[in-house]
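[audit] Reproducing an earlier prediction to check determinism. Same input, same settings, fresh worker. If the tokens differ from the archived copy the diff job will pick it up downstream; this log only records the rerun itself.
[audit] input (294 residues):
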Amino acid sequence: MFQVTTKNLYDLKKDENGAITYDDDFFGKQASLTVSGQLEGELAATALGAIYTFGPTFRAENSNTPRHLAEFWMIEPEVAFNDIIDNMDLAEEFIKYCVQWALDNCGEDLKFLNDMVDKGLIERLQGVMQSEFVRLPYTEGVQILEDAVAKGHKFEFPVYWGVDLASEHERYLVEVHFKRPVILTDYPKEIKAFYMKQNEDGKTVRAMDVLFPKIGEIIGGSERESDYNKLMTRIQEMHVPMKDMWWYLDTRKYGTCPHAGFGLGFERLLLFVTGMANIRDVIPFPRTPHNAEF
């Protein structure tokens, strides 16, 4: 995450060990910009039933691609009593609603973009509406990719069970193998966040990524872990500071309900709907690692 401070970076106060002190900072401690409102959203969903957040998201990962921004906008629904199946249903319905709205209300714009930018745009949007998304376990997806390699297909990055799939792997599944959107599920727990519900096999979690043509991942989400002991164990295994997690653990301590949610990168949705090639063309003020003034 991006660290944020009101201190003068050219005159930092340090302690006797050389560590920066934040006593005179506005926050009084080291602080960072948020990556997600999910954890707080879980509390709201268990109180109100179904909620969503929509706001800026900040990521400091070193991903300099046409699909990544340092600051983007994310829509994050969270629904009480939803399991992973309900979550996949909601994600598919949600994205189809957005695409259909664009087809119904922005026809002239889409025709212009189809004629001038991407000749297959409208056909691709209509294809999404007419197809049922494939629901594919990660293990089966990796097997498909390994079979492709065995038959001579070349990937830049290696593929094996346990790897966090690259965009080229995701797009192969969507564009080459199935030729329609794919919801990849049941990822290895080691490559996913601590809050995702563990499956009975002890190796995978009830995560889901919606993969789209030309984009790769457009939605990421999961059913949330409701078991206090399992959640505590994962927090400890992943060395998440307990001082930041006590309140979240309290929401499970005395029992909770199943709940699930996901995050949709709004600019990636716009990228797909408009047929543009670079995500910087669909956000008003693109902020990349080389242009990250706030």
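[audit] rerun output stored. Observation attached for the diff report: The longest strand covers residues 71-80.
[audit] end
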